[in-house]
UniProtKB/TrEMBL annotation:
PROSITE patterns: KINESIN_MOTOR_1 (PS00411), KINESIN_MOTOR_2 (PS50067). Keywords: ATP-binding, Coiled coil, Hydrolase, Motor protein, Nucleotide-binding. InterPro entries: Kinesin-like_fam, Kinesin_motor_CS, Kinesin_motor_dom, Kinesin_motor_dom_sf, P-loop_NTPase. It comes from Rozella allomycis (strain CSF55). This is P-loop containing nucleoside triphosphate hydrolase protein. Pfam families: Kinesin.
């Protein structure tokens, strides 16, 4: 699921887009002669039919199991990155059962140069490319933070001493987490080093689907601050990357 900026440039009903992506059968499903219960009718609707249920669901866009990471990025994320660089906020999160392909969609093969890179490395790479191509009169500062929500408590994943952090709201900052750590970064590799540090600190619990599946939600925030030295104007945009726990109970 991808969300356009929280402060939209224009009025309309397209500020939130819901995208459905199907993965191919995995090894276990093939070995068990699993049956496909979905029929993609067009690029916006899909029919689900089984012995217990039948229904048609509509989305802003549907991507089948043959979709490449690059195609998904261009449709769902490229415009959000442009908006963030223009001083707006944007959010991307994946929702689904453990094993449905959330991690592959978001991370893929990681921060390498292969075609299997996920949405996150592609977005971060594009941000730094846009910074590099910007006029010399613009100064940039990029900072990241990483938090976990577990049992209704907010925990700082970059400084695990900070547990049960309070949530505040004011007119200038909006909703924010007080005392949450912020780390300045200057490259794709630095961003992923911070992400790894936070991911290693996440609470892991066993589920029926995947013993390594996290039972917590996490939010990684990347903020881009800009100052134009020609007129001293400033603007700031934040990218929120949300990793939800598996949707199974």
């Amino acid at each position: 699921m991808s969300s356009r900026p929280t402060t939209p440039k224009t009025s309309g009903n397209n500020n939130i887009r819901v995208i459905c992506r199907f993965r191919p059968e995995n090894k276990v499903e093939k070995e068990n002669n699993g049956k496909v219960f979905v029929d993609i009718l067009d690029h916006m609707s899909v029919k689900v039919q089984s012995n217990e249920y039948s229904g048609v669901f509509s989305f802003d866009r549907i991507f089948d199991w043959s979709t490449k990471q690059d195609d998904l990025f261009h449709y769902s994320c490229e415009e959000i990155v442009n908006d963030i660089m223009n001083g707006y906020n944007g959010t991307i999160f994946a929702y689904g059962q453990t094993g449905s392909g959330k991690t592959w969609t978001m991370m893929g093969s990681g921060p390498d140069n292969s075609e299997n890179r996920g949405l996150i490395p592609r977005m971060v790479e594009k941000i730094f490319c846009m910074i590099s191509d910007s006029p010399e009169t613009i100064e940039f500062a990029v900072k990241v933070s990483y938090m976990e929500i577990y049992m209704e408590r907010v925990r700082d994943l970059l400084n695990t001493i900070n547990e049960n952090l309070p949530i505040h709201e004011d007119k200038s900052r909006g909703v924010y987490v007080k005392d949450l750590s912020e780390v300045y970064v200057s490259s794709l590799n630095e961003v992923f080093a911070v992400m790894k540090q936070g991911t290693d600190a996440r609470m892991i619990a066993s589920t029926n689907m995947n013993q390594e599946s996290s039972r917590s939600h996490s939010i990684f925030v990347m903020t881009i601050e800009q100052k134009d030295l020609s007129d001293m104007s400033v603007k700031s945009g934040s990218l929120f990357l949300v990793d939800l726990a598996g949707s199974e109970k």
